[in-house]
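By way of example, what follows is a protein record of this kind.
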Amino acid sequence: MDIDQHGNVEAAFSLPNELIAIVFDELDIVSLLRCKQVCKLFHSVINTNVQLLYKTELFFGRFENGRHCNLDTAGRLRACRQYQQAWNNFSFPDSRFINMHDGHAWELSGGVLCQATQTGLTCVQLPCKIKDIPEREWTIKDFGFEIKDFTVDTSQELIIALEIVDAIPNRTCNVHLRALMTGEHHPMAVMPFVTHLLSDMHEELRFLIQVCGSHTAILCQERGDDPNSRLVVWDWKSGQQKLFIQDSDLRSFSFVTEDLLLVGIVAVESDETPPRLDILSIDNFSEDVEGYKDVNYICSLGYPKMKADVIDMLIRSEPTPGWSPSQTVQTPFFFARSDRIFTITMRVSPESNPSEECTILIIPLSTIMAQVELSCNTQKRIVPWTEWGPNGSYMLLRNPSDTWVCYVYGMKFIQLLPWKKGNSARVYDFNKHAARRDVRNEQTTEPKLPWKRLGMPQSLNSRCSAFAEEVYTYLPGRVATVEVMPSDASSHAWEAAMIGEDNIVLVSVHARKYGYIAM
């Protein structure tokens, strides 16, 4: 501003409002919100300028502006407000049932529900009227091989499909790189597939596959006596192998950034060591095979001390850091990549309880990156639970389930309520800005929202016998219960719920059905 030596700010106030708005648009969102509190003039300029209002709505909703949309700013602002109102009130007018095929592999990614048939793929793009995304279906009938497992990346129009070739002891896995719309070899991949040698010890295998930018990571887990795990990362465009770790302690992983991995570790040979979450840098590895004891991780986030055996661990986070909507979907805005949550689902067998228990630990990206920054000058930094967990995560219980689902997207997490006959779900939203807006709503005469703020930290130990110490966790956020569409099979209720950016998807393996509700 033009401020003279006597602190005169009259020149600034004499500028046309349009020029003040142009200056304000150059500010970051925090500075913009502070300017709104300076005086009535600045408050009026910001509250009456469409571009500044849209910038503010993107911030509170945790969105990024879409690049491939024909709507003007006023249209985007209107859609953004309608979208947030739909989530606030769970207004999902569209619903539909989708038949399940063989049910051995499915994926919800980028608003597309994909199912594997024996040698092909069926895909449904779920609709969103507010974003002007239509429902669309297509089928890839035959890849030319039997699909063992797969994943998709809608932002790069990519399918990663696994083919098991031959039998023990000459068994290999071909990792095919195909185009999502056609099933043909992906044009950005130098090779149509890469080959990985599998174990010659175990017949039963489980795969976890993720794509992030140019990196593809696959965790192959053996089942049976003396199991082992292999984590391999390739540059899928060039075919170059970036990382190969082989160790029985590896349980799960997820991309933190395109270079960083969050890896779940459960020490097989030690009953005293609690599980931990290690952050690895892909750039620190060579193509050679490494055991985990040789890995130089950045830091290790410890779990609370346990009095239970870990049966299984799964880390999920959607979307991956490099994801953005495909150019074929002209969305006006999408979930911001600056923060998202990771869910660590752990099934355990407590010493004092004959039944299995299942805990879900929810960790924001900001918690993980804060520990990475504190470890910049130290390798293998050990971070005890008490230093990061109680005020940087949120832990809850859920019923153990063998149904694999994508129950996390962005800052939201969904949990089907079995005691409601599968017709209700609990949705958690860890966007702290949305929770603060709910507080303001409670202080007005506007219709009350179904959301409630998450309360202060409470001990998990009264409901969970897996931990040997008191476990308190807290994250700002909100929670609500939503009524979902009833299952059309009278004998089979919904068994699991998935959440996407614009929709909720229900799953019933026994009824061979999916159902979705969309805004």
